[in-house]
Amino acid sequence: MFGGWSRCGRTGIGRPASGSPGAYPKNLKTIETRSNCPYCAVCCGVIVHTMTDGSKNVIPQVVHIEGDPDNPINRGTLCPKGASLQQDCVNERRLTKPQVRRPGKSDWEDISWNQALDEIARKVKDTRDRGFVHLDDQGQVVNRCENIAFAGGATDTNELCWTVVKTMAALGVVRHENVART
Known about the structure:
By secondary structure, this protein is α+β, with helices and mostly antiparallel strands. The protein is built from 5 helices and 8 strands.
């Protein structure tokens, strides 16, 4: 028994253990997808349960995420961050479009993705140009940007970290860190 569910019931196969208070077959009609928790470099296994009505062009909804008991790393357990992973996928407060707060304003305004990317690109280019060092004090060519830094987060994927490292190197940025996935 695991948390009031039989082993099969917990993975969406079979029924909840009898006599379990508040047990209900929430995962009986879901599709299971095995994945890895994105938070730290441990890569704990998770099972993502999605549900759809079977119609074409319908995006399945994440309804439950749990630790994968068959994963040799975490054996079904998750830390508090991993246990809250569903909130990364399903949260009505999650932003779905770019926002900006202009200087002197107190409210955020929605902007288009193109406008956001254009503004970011312009600010990065202007900042890089102001702090770019072509030669060091001894006259050696260094071509580095000393006034931009990047610090990644624990939810960054390996692919994002790879992209960040390559992008920062292309900009000449020498101060960058990607937490556990460097």
